[in-house]
Amino acid sequence: MLIPALIGRGREGYCSLDRQTVTGLDGSHLAEASITPPLLVRALAGKRCSALGELPVRALLAVFERAADIFATGQPDGLTPEAFIRNVTLNSGLPLSASRDRTIGLFTTAFRTMGRFLEVQSPAGLDVFDSHVYEAGAIRLGFVPRGRNIGFVMPGNHPSTHFMWLGALAMKVPVVLRPSIDDLFTPYRLVRSLLEAGLPEHAIAFVPGGHDLVDTIVESCSLAVLFGGQQMVDRYGSTSRIKLHGPGRSKVVVLANADFEQAVSLIARLVMDDAGRGCINASAVIVEGDADRLAGAVAAALERVPVLSPLSEHALLGATRPAHAAAFDGLIDSQFGSEARELTSGPAHRVATIDGMTIMRPVVIEVPSFEHALFGLELPFPFVVFASAPRQDIVRAARNSLAVVLAGDDPGLTTELLLEPTIDKVLGDGALSTEFDPLEPHEGFLLDFLYQKKAFRSGPLGRL
Length: 464
Prior knowledge:
The protein is of the alpha/beta class. The protein has 17 helices and 21 strands. It has helices spanning 38-45, 50-54, 57-73, 81-92, 96-112, 114-121, 128-131, 163-170, 185-197, 212-220, 230-236, 260-272, 292-303, 322-336, 394-398, 411-419, 446-450, and strands at 2-3, 19-23, 29-34, 133-136, 139-145, 150-153, 175-178, 204-206, 223-227, 242-245, 250-254, 282-288, 319-320, 341-342, 351-354, 357-360, 363-366, 383-389, 401-407, 423-427, 451-455. Strands 14-17-18-12-11-19-20 form a seven-stranded mixed sheet, sandwiched between helices. Strands 8-7-6-9-10 form a five-stranded parallel sheet, with helices on both faces. Helix 3 (57-73) packs antiparallel against helix 5, helix 4 crosses helix 5 (96-112) and helix 12 packs across helix 13 (292-303). The N and C termini lie far apart (62 Å).
């Protein structure tokens, strides 16, 4: 299978002489991917696409509706749905059932509900995406894209991240998309489905490539969305035309009045869902009082998770590259110190191998304070660190989190967490679902990054 760049040159796409082999986590050969030259990406990003802007928004949403059936049941990428799902698992390491739910399940629905996604974020319904003008009270305002296009540098941890560039297209902003080599099949099938459904070819450029394309996309596109770790945050985090999604560092707060068994079940689910790969999976637990008993119970529950091949329908754990597993293992050890306690089986049992694939087993650690180096560390497998904290320190311990779940009842604390600027999502009384909800803000609404409001007067009276 050859995966070309899709740059408006017809169904065959662009195939460079420079190619990268896509190898499954079991060592199997999955595909060859064309490597897009930075000069070509720069040229593509410098062009304007008028076809997407001229397409009425309701006609564009009809394209998304048609793409839903193509993505779910067709072969836009040359693969049957089940062959596609298998490749997603072998490429990304996500367990088979999660790969199915987070691709065919998620995006088929997302395509069909894109109109609702736009309406939730829009200041004036769907028509404003065509007219670019709306009225707020007695004032007429312009509503326009902030630039000619947007570039996306995608991660490989979870398929749901691809909803963001789909949303940008639905908002009539052309996209330059660099997929991750660790999740290549999902965006390729999504793009192929949209093109087969009638999306203008120049509305999206699908450009597989290496890390050298990151700077090219940032420099050449009007706007950019990047995913990455702390190094990416440090490098690009202060640039207003870049939206950066760094580590989630999501946490659970367990109050003294929380039901113990419910808390164990909640934490185990938040750690294990989608093999711990999502940015809203729990990576830390703050316990009001003594964390020891709760941490031990969660560790016992996670120890019972079977180690199965990710290709098994019953698998709950994902696969990773052997080098990555060694790096994760080494990072934990380097930050462990003398006061931390590992409550699962320990360093010698963190890594397993089955059917030629490397699996990270769940790891549960208790540390003496939320200021410990391991607290807040996010790793792409079921990894969670427990710390005790008194009521007055809970908000400080919960800072810098994509999501915080509160188990137990304390309306005052819920409000304090909501008002904390470094926390993006607050879910009280164990309300968190690790399923991505595109109707909710995710580090803000995408529309607020893509569009800007302008003063606009078209006659002698600007306001009533």
